Amino acid sequence: MPAKTTPRPGLHGSRARHAEAARAKILAAALPHVAFDGWTPRLMREAAEAAGVDHNEMRLAFPDGALDLVDYFLADGDRRMAGALGARDLAAMKVRERITHAVRARIEADGLHREAVRRAVTLLALPTSGGRGPRALYRTVDAIWRAAGDTSTDFNFYTKRATLAGVYSAVTLYWLADNSEDFADTWAFLDARIEDVMRFEKAKASVLDVVGKLPDPFALLGRLRYRQ
Length: 228
Description:
The protein is mainly α. The chain folds into two domains: 13-63; 82-227, Tetracycline Repressor, domain 2, CATH 1.10.357. 74% of the residues lie in helices and 0% in strands. The chain has ten helices and no strands. Helix 4 packs across helix 5. The protein starts with 10 loop residues before the first helix and ends with a helix.
């Protein structure tokens, strides 16, 4: 009977770190060429070779190929945004200012790779992406809200992220086509979209306040019923 083997402590952690290092190397080698070659399997293979990552390591790092590489690129942008915001005193800002800063920081995180973002958005919009686009968008807006200090766990958790998803998508698409100096038009567009959201939130709060003062319709119907 063969002896049982006991996994060495830290083995899985070592493998995870090795895979993460391989992902980072491949992405770094791929980014300078994405604008010309797109997010393709060939690009990923060539990037892995240039980074000194063998084929088996590449497959372990990105099991689903180029789609995994795109997803990693977008997730890396979220991490870099969180790092940039960590150096700012967001707690001293109003929520509106926090979200504006966070959205801008997320877009600026990929400022040197706008064409890579464009090609990523195009690829994830295809049916063959398997729903990765919406998942990546949710991950980004969730990261933005968390960086802004959101701790909600009720229904607001979902409404905040759904609202921001629309804002972030619109601003990103605007940025991809913006040729103004230092993307000034994009930041003006962002401010306008945030203003729209704030007006909506104020209107919603007013409606909820009015509704809260109305009599309970079920109780009212009950009283009418028993008066008959």
